[in-house]
Amino acid sequence: MLSPQYVRIPMNKRILLTAVIALGVLGAIFGFKYLQIRQAKAAMAARKPAPAAVTTTPAVQETWRSTLHAVGSLESFRGVTLRAEIEGRIVHVGFESGARVQAGDVLVELDSQAETAQLRSNEATARLAALNLVRARDLRENSTNTQADLDTAEATAAQTAAATEATKATLAKKRIVAPFAGRLGLRQVNPGQFLNKADLIVTLEASDPIYADFSLPQQDVTQLRPGLPVKVSIDAFADREFDGVVEAIDPRINETTRNLRVRARLPNPDEALRPGMFVRVDVVLPDERPVVVLPATAIVYSPYGDSVYVVAKNEQGVLAAQQRFVQVGPKRGDQISLLGGVKPGEEIVTAGQGKLRPGTPVTVNNSVVPTNNPAPKPAES
Question: What is the pLDDT of residue 378?
Answer without folding.
Answer: 59
